[in-house]
Each structure stands twice: as C-alpha cells, then as structure tokens.
Design goal:
By secondary structure, the chain is an alpha/beta fold. It has 9 helices and 10 strands. It folds into 2 domains: about 180 residues, Alpha/beta knot (3-Layer(aba) Sandwich), CATH 3.40.1280.10; about 60 residues, Trp Operon Repressor, Chain A (Orthogonal Bundle), CATH 1.10.1270.
Amino acid sequence: MSDKPSKSHGRLAISATAQPRDLMTDRPDLAGAWTAKIITLFPEAFPGVLGASLTGKALQEGKWKLDTIDLRLFGEGKHRNVDDTPAGGGAGMVLRPDIMSRAIRFAQKNAPKDRARWPLVYLSPRGKPFTQRTAERFAAAEGLTMICGRFEGLDQRVIDHYDIEEISLGDFVMTGGEIAAQAMIDATIRLRPGIIGNAASTEEESFSEGLLEHPQYTRPATWEGRDIPEVLTSGDHGKVAKWRKDQAEKITKSRRPDLWRAYQDEKDKT
C-alpha cells in the first residue's frame, strides 16, 4: 500500500497553529528551522498550549515548525481502522504495526537517518523518564518525530523494526501521548536559540545544574509581614550567588533525594 492517504482525505501533513488559516499564509518558512513531527490520531489537539506565549510567537515567526501527521489517514477500510485486538487475548486494542509503519515512513521521508540529528520517539509509560538532559539532546538535534500512543499501546514489532526510542513523561498513565508530546516539545523549544530573550534564565533554573531552583522574590519588599531575604537586597553579588546555591542544595536535598544523590555523585567525580 502507498504511503500516501486517499486524496479524498485531504492533506496529510499540516502546520498546526492556534489560528491555522491565518498563520499558514503569513508565517515565514525559515530554512533549517527546528521541526517537530507528530504522528497522532488527534491532530486537532495541536498546537494546544504550544500556540501560546513564547513558543507560539516563535511558531508564528517560523523559528520552529510543527507538522501533525494524522495516523487515521493511513488506516484501512471504510472507517480507516488503525488498531486490532491484542494477540493472546486481553482488554483494549493495539495500534497495528503495518499502519504505523506507513505513517513513520511518511514522517521520516525528508528527515536525517542519523538519530542523533533526528530522534524517533514513542511516548510510552514504560519508556525512560523525560528529563532536562533529554530536552537538551532534542534541542541540539535538527528536529524530531514523536508517536503519540493510544489504546493499549503500539505493536512491539514496529518499535523493534525502527529501533524507536521510548520515553515517559512520568510514572502515571494517560489516555494518549498528545499532552505529553506538548510538554516535551515546550521543554525543548525554549532551549533553542532565539526563543527566550534572556538565555541566562535557562542556565539558572531547576535541573540546569542537577538541582532544583532557589526561591525567587520581587517587589514589594514587605508583603503580609514577610520580607525579602536581606542578602538579596545587599548588592553583594557574591553573597547572593552563594545564598542561591545554598538554597538550591537545601531544597533539592529535602524534596528530591534522588536528584541530590545524583548531584553528590557528580561532585565526587570532579
């Protein structure tokens, strides 16, 4: 079967935006823009929150691209079926490997084969946890393709055949991968050059050094009887930096013992 969907089902890959008709014609298509390709049964779910704030502005300006690929268009029969019952019995349905393979081949048609340059990811609760390091790796690539799971999951054979990387947003189960995909793309896009005006802000936030972020304060100096810590108004940048580091370590040690142990291990190596 051809990778292309029936013409009656329209265009396969669309640029998803908060206002598609307006932005499709006005948005610049910058050469080499970082691109997220999303294979999903619900392309209308995108861009979602990605169409707002800094990521939405960058999307409109063509600094990155979002292409949704409707898995249903590769389905079979009158109803474009994409799933079937689990082999060996059991509840629910499983996404078929032949259907998914067609969508993957379409998505990867113009993408580099080197997975370091273009990761191929399946969003799954059994995958490796998504971390800030994962976001940094994705941001350093030219783009990535994400497969949003549904039902009981994806046939293992297609995962093995394409050597798909499985990644999890956390230790919980969702109805599908669309929300997870938006969260991961948001964490990735903000690390790309030109997305966030103050690049230093991404260097000081949580997880950037393996620690949770220190507390933040702003005006007024006194609120509800609570004062901004005196050191932050001292004008001594050295003392401010030390206070922030101490606070970050204290918070990480009490709230995330796992991160604290990893942080200590890294310190011991240096």
